[in-house]
Amino acid sequence: MFSLEVTRMRKRLVFLGILMVLACLLAGTRANAQDDDLVTAAKNGDLPHVKALLSKGADVNAKDNDGVTALFVASYYGHLDVVQVLLAKKADVNARSNGTTSLYIASQEGYLEVVRALLDKGAQVNLQDNDGVTALSIASQRGRLDIVNTLLAHGADVNLSDHEGWTALIWACQEGYLDVIQALLGKKADVNAKGNDGASALLLASEKGHIDIVRALLAQGAEIGVKNNDGAGVLMAAACNHHLDVVQVLLDHGADINARNNIGATTLFCASLNSNLDAVQLLLAKGANVNIKRTDGTTALMAASLNGNLDLVRLLIANGAEVNAKSSIDGTALMFASQGGYIEVVRALLAAKADVNSKTSDVGTTPLMFASEHGHPDVVQALLDAKADVNARKNDNATALLGASQDGYLDVVKILLANGADVNAEDANSQTALLLAAAEGHTNVAQALLAKGADVNVKNDKGATALYLASEKGTLDLVQALLARGAEINTKDANGITALMKASYYGHLDVVQALLAKGADIDALSDKGATALGAAILGKHDDVKELLLKAGAKQ
Fold it and tell me: Which of 136, 331, 389, 466 is the one with CA 20 to 30 A from 425?
């Protein structure tokens, strides 16, 4: 009897325990719901609801599913009355929501009274977010002068930098807030502080063209010779971004006009490359060295020629630019202009005695070759009129005609031929203009070359003829033109392969028909015993296979 009662008691205790656990879980669920509701109410600025939830025991420091507290969202949206109530209920004024404090977010959004309320309750003014940014830096970045002054009055560290090394002053200079900058400087902000990229406040202000800020920084002793990690200085930053007024101020304060960055470029070079005519004029008037080269040997004149800026080219030449200066691979301004097809620049350089037959050291390319290979007939003609050597050779023996033919520039090809280009010139691989045109399927170019006496049966170093290459490409009209000019139909390449085999392998049915009609040997064998029929089968071209069989190909 006694044991039965004990058993019953144990069951009741277990049951009561389960009830207590359930009650706690339900209470926790209600509490969690209340906490989420508190954050939502704070976000909406619903003060009565906030008070009601707090009176029911909502946790003032609880975070919602997004990891934010009620104080944070109230600060974010500027709900001062809600912020004050939460603070009165002992909300943690320095709690972080995803790494950011309420003071930071209120400073960012510009809510001065909220900032003051937070500070009055002990907000730590120098706390940094996950990127190391402080409330002062974000307020400076956003141009919140009243908040900046308030933070400074509460002991904000004016020189505390973020993880990128940027201080509040650097941020303010980047964005152009002069009043904020003056406030920071008044609190002894380090005018020469640098970010991890080497940029200082003065460099960024110069780059952005904030002339009043540049003057203010210089008046406070900003270092004018500062450079970023790429070696670019303040003068270069201003000139390359077309801030002529800043350039003038910097020059007036002694900026080094010939300073060079890590690749040897000067401000004059950068201004020329960016087609900044006014800056170039100013720099030249102030004595910039017009012929300083970058580490790759390029000059300001080359940069201007590369961009086809005629006014700049003329200005640089008039100020003593060496028209035949050479880069590290012996490139010249004339080469850059010829490649780009800038005919007026080419004429200006030629008038200044540019060497029309100079060659690059790496490949041996001349201005005429550059113009020919890029399809600029007017430049080609101008260079030829200036006595360019039409048959000059590259290091691999290629000529301008070969380059123009390969790329299909018919107008250029005609001009070169009319000016004495050797139609049968061969490069180091025994390629001729005709062979290159045929390989690319340029029928009109090939016909122009044939009309000027191109050898129709010449072979390259692999034994391929123009007919062979045209058959491989499948260019029917060119195949017909070559046959009409007497192309040998059964000639073989170095492996014994014929034009018919190539056309069959690639499935060019119309070319196969044309070759057969002109007597192509249907059963010719390659060095490995392959036939046109075998090539068609290997290439899986059933239509060609059937045509060859009907024409009597042996199986």
Answer: 331
